[in-house]
Write a structure and sequence with these properties.
Largest sheet: 5 strands, mixed
CATH topology of the largest domain: D-Maltodextrin-Binding Protein, domain 2
Pfam family, one: NMT1_2
Helix content: 40-55%
Order of helices and strands: HEHHEHEHEEEHEHEHEHEHHHHHHH
Protein name: ABC transporter substrate-binding protein
Main location: periplasm
Distance between the termini: 52 Å
Mean pLDDT: 92
Oligomer: single chain
Strand content: 15-25%
Subcellular location: Periplasm
Number of strands: 10
Radius of gyration: 22 Å
Shape: globular
CATH architecture of the largest domain: 3-Layer(aba) Sandwich
Keywords: Signal
CATH class of the largest domain: Alpha Beta
Length: 329
């Protein structure tokens, strides 16, 4: 009888011990970001402020430079989660992939590029782009599609009225503009502000203000990963939501100090001005929920650019369960 009681007590102890170990265990996530940009400030806040660590998550952040490379990294198993434009998930889905990428958390909700001119344009009008030499973005990528959408909105055909060069790789666009004879380019922050400070270029307009709300950049994972790592994904989303709320509640200067380690070669005041621009145009999503209206706007922009391969239903590629769970919606 004593032996049975001893074994029962031992079993309970072991269960409690294993449960405690599980609660304190750390999950490692390899995260591929499509580029390094102040545009992704809430992610860097989540890392630097320890919000992921609070949830028992260790982030291995890799910059994979470009949508195609980032998606290939995700699908091949080189990353667990990717931060990339939602349009890439539509391209993969259209290829009849068996284990396609699902959007489960939104990070940015507007375009993040600014129109930069080589020369000062104090009285800039969109009509000034007509017959100009324009350094464009990757075919089928969100910056290029939004750029075309905005130009057409202002009555300019990007393939007829503008001398458009799309031959430069994403990572080399800033240097190509600086050294080439291009008159205009789309640039993310902080590069746009750095160019303005150096006199290399001048910010004349915002594509984010012109294009409206769209699920521009978000976190996605393969369906199999969401099925196998449900708890980890929910904890990841919870940490992200904490960061989004923190960014919402703090001023640009305070935020800039936190994310400065991710942009060590950039003056913190420039980072702050970049963050202020994004906050002023509501670029940073304040929660991770990707809604259906934004999804439809994305498809409209892709369709206008002639890049929508098929009409993909919202329910097929967007999973809001994790986002709604952490925001209690």
């Amino acid at each position: 009888m004593r032996k049975i009681k001893f074994l029962t007590v031992l079993s309970v102890f072991l269960l409690l011990f294993l449960s405690a170990c599980n609660m304190n265990s750390t999950s490692k996530i390899t995260l591929a970001e499509v580029t390094r940009s102040v545009f992704y400030t809430p992610l860097y806040v989540a890392i630097e402020h320890g919000f992921f660590e609070e949830e028992g998550i260790e982030i291995d952040l890799q910059t994979t430079w470009g949508g195609d490379t980032t998606m290939t990294t995700l699908l091949s198993g080189g990353a667990d989660i990717a931060l990339v434009g939602a349009e890439t998930s539509i391209y993969v889905y259209a290829q009849d992939s068996r284990d396609y990428a699902i959007n489960f958390a939104q990070l940015t909700q507007t375009d993040g590029t600014f129109l930069v001119a080589k020369e000062p344009k104090p009285d800039f009008k969109w009509e000034d782009l007509r017959n100009s030499n324009f350094l464009g973005q990757r075919v089928g990528g969100m910056p290029q599609m939004v750029g075309e959408f905005v130009l057409k909105k202002h009555g300019i055909d990007p393939h007829q009225d503008v001398s458009l060069d799309q031959s430069v790789d994403f990572a080399n666009i800033p240097s190509a503009f600086a050294s080439g004879d291009y008159e205009y380019v789309q640039l993310f922050e902080p590069t746009a502000s750095v160019f303005e400070t150096e006199g290399t270029g001048h910010i004349v307009a915002s594509f984010g203000e012109e294009s409206g709300k769209v699920p521009y950049t978000g976190f996605m994972a393969k369906q199999s990963y969401l099925d196998d790592e449900t708890i980890t994904v929910e904890k990841f989303t919870k940490a992200l939501y904490k960061a989004q709320q923190w960014v919402k509640e703090n001023d640009a200067e305070t935020i800039a100090e936190v994310v400065h380690p991710f942009f060590e070669d950039t003056d913190v005041s420039l980072i702050a001005s970049s963050i202020e621009r994004y906050k002023n145009q509501d670029s940073f999503a304040t929660d991770p929920i990707l809604d259906e209206e934004e999804w439809q706007n994305l498809k409209d922009i892709m369709n206008e650019a002639g890049e929508l391969p098929m009409d993909v239903p919202y329910a097929d590629l967007v999973n809001t369960d994790f986002a709604k769970a952490v925001t209690n919606q």
